[in-house]
Amino acid sequence: MNSTPVAPAKINLFLHVGSTRADGYHPIESLVAFADTGDDLQFTPGGDAFSIRVTGAYAEASGKPEDNLVLKAANLFAQNIPGVSRGAFSLTKNLPAGAGLGGGSSDAAAALRILAEHKGLSASDPAVLAAAHETGADVAVCLERKARLISGIGEILSEPISIPPLSAVLVWPNSSASTPAVYRAFDAAEIKHSTPFGLRPKDFPRERVAFLEFLKRQNNDLTRAAWQVTPNVAEAEAVLRAVDRTQLIRMSGSGSAVFALYESIEIAEAEAAAVRARYPDWWVVAVTLS
Description:
CATH class of the largest domain: Alpha Beta
Structural class: alpha+beta
Distance between the termini: 10 Å
CATH topology of the largest domain: Ribosomal Protein S5, domain 2
């Protein structure tokens, strides 16, 4: 297994979604894990303001640099903590945007970790967590890069959960899914969440076979809505479903990336190579989730 990236891909192993609340948000319940692939972020102190340079395969798709969540997180951190050194960030975008892999949130969390380290603070420091929550709902869970159960609208985090390492293939079918559009389709279809809320960390088996069986009883409640918004999601699932050795197939987040689990990383790598050969325009990578 590779070392944990600075800004790893965030994977929703399942995602339960409730009906819209009075404030317009949907309550969720999700088990989040992290992959050993992701974006890279470097920081060079110096200057009177934060700046960012974005490179990599998906730099253009990540939006305008001045709107990047890294800058938002850094500025919020500086507002909360006096004496923070400004400087230049260099972000390498290896993760596709609009894929449900939490790339922007993970990048922002990486920025907060870097700045916190410069100030001698831990990622769990209240000031760091405050900046994370202000930046976006998914940023806080990305701070420590450990599997957790999240609830509320994503802001309520369990303690870290020990899950068995999972060999997987991540597939992004070269087509993004708009999260607001997926939720609108979910609401329009009046899709009811498949599993009652109320899971607790102690409910998750630690042994791999039992854990897989537990995962199979869960669901991503946004899947059918995502199929309507981005039909390539269904195509990617069908491609992975055609493989005999696939143990579980599921969409991550609101899409459009999907993942499949396998018995070993060697099998995952072989299947990833087969999918890449058939669909050279897709982003396909074998990973370990933990």
